[in-house]
Write a structure and sequence with these properties.
Layout: H1 2-26, H2 30-55, H3 60-87, H4 100-115
Length: 116
C-alpha cells in the first residue's frame, strides 16, 4: 500500500515539475518565468520527496532535511534572481501595470535628493 501511495504522490510531483517547466517556456518575460518556475518546482519537489519518503520510510530524516532546505532556499534564490534582473534593467512585459520595486526605489531617490 505504501508503494502505491508513494508512487501516486511522486506522480503528482512529476506533474507539477512538468507544469513548471512548461510555464517557464510559456511566460512572456523573465519575472513571470521565475515566478512560474519557482512555485511549481518547489511544490513538485516537495511532493516528489514526500512520495519517496512514503515509499522508503527509513529515509525520513534525510528527506525532512532536504524538504526544509528546499523550502528555505528556493524562494530566496528566485527573489535574488528577480531583484538582480530588475536592477540590471531587464524589461517587464508591456502589460505590466504595477512595479513596486521601481516605485520604492524612486521614493528612496526622492528622499535622498531632499536631504541634499
Amino acid at each position: 500500500m505504501n508503494e502505491l501511495l508513494g508512487s501516486i504522490v511522486i506522480l503528482f510531483g512529476a506533474i507539477f515539475l512538468f507544469l513548471g517547466s512548461l510555464g517557464t517556456l510559456r511566460m512572456p518575460d523573465s519575472f513571470n518565468r521565475i515566478q512560474a518556475g519557482t512555485k511549481a518546482t518547489t511544490m513538485g519537489t516537495l511532493l516528489t520527496l514526500t512520495g519517496v519518503c512514503i515509499y522508503h520510510p527509513a529515509w525520513i530524516g534525510k528527506i525532512v532535511i532536504l524538504l526544509l532546505f528546499i523550502v528555505l532556499t528556493n524562494p530566496t534564490s528566485s527573489h535574488a534572481l528577480a531583484r538582480a534582473a530588475h536592477i540590471t534593467g531587464i524589461p517587464l512585459v508591456g502589460s505590466t501595470v504595477i512595479d513596486k520595486l521601481r516605485e520604492s526605489r524612486q521614493k528612496e531617490n526622492d528622499l535622498e535628493e531632499d536631504k541634499l
